[in-house]
Amino acid sequence: MVRRRLLAVVPVLGVVSLGLFAAAAASPFDPLVGYLGDRYVTTSRADRELIAGQLGVDVPWYELYGRWVRGLFSGDLGASRTYGQPVGQVLAERVPWTVLLVGVGVTTAILVALGAGVWSGMRRGGSIDRAVTAACVVVQGLPPFVLSLGAIGIFAVGLGWLPPAGATDAGAEPGIVQVARHLVLPAAVLAVSQLPWLLLAVRESVSANRGEDFVAGAVARGIDDTTIVRRHIVPASLGPFVTILGVRLPEIVVGAVLVEEIFSWPGIAGAFVRSATDLDMPLLAVLTVGATGAVLVGSLLADIACAALDPRVRADG
């Protein structure tokens, strides 16, 4: 199964990239507008044609696609018109910031979901469980940009506890303290936006596993409650949790893009947006294919982890 899914990744990425170039060609946006900016209206038609030829955007989309694919196989990702840099350099400068934000945000969401989900699942119907469930239902209905604006309004503007944007203060060096202070709000928002689904998945799984035969057998053998929860119920509940995490990967990617844009975080989201608006195809294609590949591989890894955690899944497979 794993081999078949890995082999399917390449054609899927091929279809996505091909569709991207075809859609860009059908778009009403002119890449020269993004490149020239305000100068576009004052540039003569002859000069526009000359610039289009120099940039290589005056050829059919399938020819552009062929050039891009050949460049990939030769290790050349192309150059970004938007940033005036090689695409590889744009990625090297921005991807680590996105990895930092997503890593901290998702790790926080996982830890809180496991802790609060196990607590609620073991005490289903109690006052804390009802409060946690109600909070999850409310947060589920709030998109990441609403959570972001609310966090900025309360903790940055209202209370003044944390900076509202950027990775450092203006003119400051990106030291650990500076980055950590600026990371708190965007990482917390990203964590909160993903928390309800993860927490409720753990709660439901733990609650269901409480009534399973293996738990009853452990109780009959005189094993204490803490050990039963830690060694029996929690391991059996991790499979569905990992599955939900894999399913949520596209939402995590979208949420990270929105959060980065609102908090002006220097990650890949800004490059994604600018490359799309400018039709900067070398950069946009790499970002789109990279994001799609990350989701596909992440989903596969989640399924593998689920099978490793739950023997019943291996038996079914």
Q: What is the radius of gyration computed over CA atoms, rounded to a whole number of angstroms?
A: 24 Å
Query: What's the number of helices?
Result: 14
Spans of at least 5 consecutive residues whose pLDDT stays below 50 are 313-317
CATH topology of the largest domain: MetI-like fold
Number of domains: 2
Main sheet summary: 2 strands, antiparallel
Order of helices and strands: HHHHEEHHHHHHHHHH
In which order are the strands of the major sheet placed? 1-2
* Overall spatial form: globular
- The strand count comes to 2
CATH superfamily membership of the largest domain? MetI-like
Strand content: under 5%
* Name given to the CATH architecture of the largest domain: Orthogonal Bundle
Give the structural class.
mainly alpha
C-alpha termini separation: 9 Å
CATH top level of the largest domain is Mainly Alpha
Helix content: over 70%
Mean pLDDT: 80
Please characterize this protein's 3D structure.
There is one protein chain. The chain is 77% helix and 1% strand. The chain has 317 residues and is an all-alpha fold. The chain folds into 2 domains: 2-86, no CATH class; 94-316, MetI-like (MetI-like fold). Strands 1-2 form a two-stranded antiparallel ribbon. Helix 7 crosses helix 8, helix 8 packs antiparallel against helix 11 and helix 9 (213-220) packs antiparallel against helix 10. The longest helix has 36 residues, at 87-122. The protein is globular and about 85 Å long. The termini are close together.
